[in-house]
Amino acid sequence: MTHELRKRGTSQFAFRLIANDGAARLGEIETPRGRVRTPAFMPVGTQATVKGMYPGEVRATGADIVLANTYHLMLRPGPERIADLGGLHAFMNWPHPILTDSGGFQVMSLASLRKITDAGVTFRSHLDGTMYELTPERAIEIQLLLGADIVMQLDECVKLPATRAEIERGVRLSLVWAERCRRAFERAPLGRALFGIVQGGDDATLRLESVRPLVDMGFDGYAIGGLAVGEPQAVMLRMVEEVAPVLPADRPRYLMGVGTPEDLVEAVARGMDMFDCVMPTRNGRHGLAFTRFGPINLKNARHADDPRPLDAESACPAARDYSRAYLHHLVKANEMLGAMLLTAVNLTYYQDLMAGMRAAIGERRFGDFQLATRELWARGDIPAL
Amino acid sequence: MTHELRKRGTSQFAFRLIANDGAARLGEIETPRGRVRTPAFMPVGTQATVKGMYPGEVRATGADIVLANTYHLMLRPGPERIADLGGLHAFMNWPHPILTDSGGFQVMSLASLRKITDAGVTFRSHLDGTMYELTPERAIEIQLLLGADIVMQLDECVKLPATRAEIERGVRLSLVWAERCRRAFERAPLGRALFGIVQGGDDATLRLESVRPLVDMGFDGYAIGGLAVGEPQAVMLRMVEEVAPVLPADRPRYLMGVGTPEDLVEAVARGMDMFDCVMPTRNGRHGLAFTRFGPINLKNARHADDPRPLDAESACPAARDYSRAYLHHLVKANEMLGAMLLTAVNLTYYQDLMAGMRAAIGERRFGDFQLATRELWARGDIPAL
Q1: What is the pLDDT of residues B136-175, one digit of tens each?
Q2: Nearest in space to A267 (alpha carbons), one of A223, A211, A219, A230
Q3: Which residues in chain A have Cβ-Cβ distances shorter than 8 Å to B330?
Q4: CA B364, B367, B371, B377 torsion: positive or negative?
Q5: Measured between CB atoms, which of B86, B307, B335 is closest to A51?
Q6: Which of A243, A239, A45, A54 is closest to B343 using CA atoms?
Q7: Is the pTM of this model over 0.90?
């Protein structure tokens, strides 16, 4: 069964490792919807839209794949409806690869009255109070109805800090659900991929206990979940250091919900291939720009009279063709265009960073790239005269 | 003085009447920033941005000119600041013509503690409570600091219904201010234009009493103000019928704050050349699409499963490349992309309507165009099967 699944899953879904530089990996995921160059950053399109961006614009930033959230889409507009409309790609006018999460994480953070049992999780919709049940089987069914190219197992993501007992329960439940998801996924059409998720909180032993059974089950890719949930960066990176080496080298590795530009560089240095985070989009909507010279808060009054663009050398029109004074004005005036421009700036910067890492790994100069990138961040933004 | 002003004003600003069809006029305004084809619809860019649209996108809808609001910009970010930053065109990344209003209308509708005297109006900012004074001279100064191509006189716009005494006062005050604006505008750089505003509420006699002194003063264009402020459409059109014929044929005529697609067609039929209105942008943000087949409310549940685009034959990607089901979802989910797409749909439809009117007037078939347009509107939207 495992072998069959794997064979079926990889006949149109495939990961090719192109180069290593230390632990950092340059690769390529093939899907029926197109190629994903790794290391890859996936912009978050929670409700079937990357907030404030046209899909063509998201593509133009350099994104090969976006993430959409099962929890939101199961509540509204509903996976059966999206399937009837031709699937999520057609629905959101994004013909390229899509990864969907399993819904589990957001049930924990957004829904009320949630109750977790071995069977799954029941919860009350934050929108209209309707009760829902999300089982491993339903999580897979929903993601297949959506038409996701990469499907995630249902897992229990424990927020940190947590007791060892809580973390252990998360590991155990996630493994039980992994196996049920794997079975449910046997009905998946050709070319879809299923990723298993390693849990284990900030406990290296539990992390390793989580990895082995998952790898034995056989997934098309492996995610590290339950990080970037409140722990210090050093803890997150230590967990990555423990887990990445024991993951199969021929499968993509996805660090869920991460992170800052620095997190991305550090995690790539430790062998991770895929990332998603709301940081560039959410912070863009709140006036924060990510740039080669570190973050710039456009709300700050020092920008009010600054005629300079955020980065005159950027290929991104939003970073190049609008003054900081104008961006400051738009942010202060709460204008949509401010959120649109800063989201574009941030997603472009994130993709530029990934492209820079890919090029550096390919040329075996990732260490130099890390140093140079850190130097620019440390230089910081130069205020107007 | 009048002669000098006119001469200076038209040396780079000029209006050319190309064709008449009945009272409808096809024309062209030349400005140093480019050409405005009339009849023209001006999208509203209140705070130096057409809400939810990139400037390049506004241009792509067919807009030759946008309107910006003096009231908002004088409060934030301030006209002196915009001037220091190179003017409004550079600030908002819109190199094409800009018309600014005088601020008067929005002082009346948004500011508190306003006090009107012959000298001008004092008011408290709705943003931070600061007291401001707006005189005819300051209104001109602000608009010149912004760098507007077309500057509007300060006027008193009386909301309807109003007593004859209130309307009379508005007419008298607006005429006094018109003359002071005209004098203040003598300092304007070459190529800028100043428009006078006809007041008079819903009283034809007062309207005509307002026109004659204005025309004697000599302006580069004439606006009809104080309509679309609560009166029935028939009253508005009757006022236009009274006023338009006595306005100089060789100057552009601007009907302020108008209107629905039908208003535009009816006002063009009565000799008006320029329009502005928040309707396409504001309604777009609230889920209403204007189309060839009349308005379509995307909030309506009937769209939830409708795979059809709003108008498969539209040149506008927003009308063509996204299903009604998706637009419905975005609107219900309060996603920015819904507002962005519907704003684009609406501004494109408005510009298509203007382009259709211009072509029809040029070919002396405006009557047929009116009939055909009304027929499509009357047909209405065809619901999904």
Answers
A1: 999 999 999 999 999 999 999 999 999 999 999 999 999 9
A2: A223
A3: 47, 49
A4: positive
A5: B335
A6: A54
A7: yes
